[in-house]
Amino acid sequence: MADKEFKEPYNVMYFLGFILALLIPTLPATLTWIRVFNGYASF
């Protein structure tokens, strides 16, 4: 199985695009939590 050439790069791109599309809605919340933790870190 490892000696077969991987000739489907589009599947990887679709997978990465799918993950990115899932992460986009969480971006504002992620940035907010980063700001919150940075605020707590600088006592």
In words, what does this structure look like?
The protein is an all-alpha fold. The model has no long low-confidence stretch (mean pLDDT 82). The chain contains two helices and no strands. It starts with 8 loop residues before the first helix and ends with a helix.
List the secondary-structure elements in sequence, H or E.
HH
Structural class: mainly alpha
What about the largest sheet? none
- Measured by DSSP, the beta-strand proportion falls in under 5%
Give the tags.
mainly alpha, about 45 residues, elongated
Topology:
Layout: H1 9-23, H2 27-41
Transmembrane segments: 12-34
Keywords: Membrane, Transmembrane, Transmembrane helix
Briefly say what this structure is.
With 43 residues, this protein is mainly α.
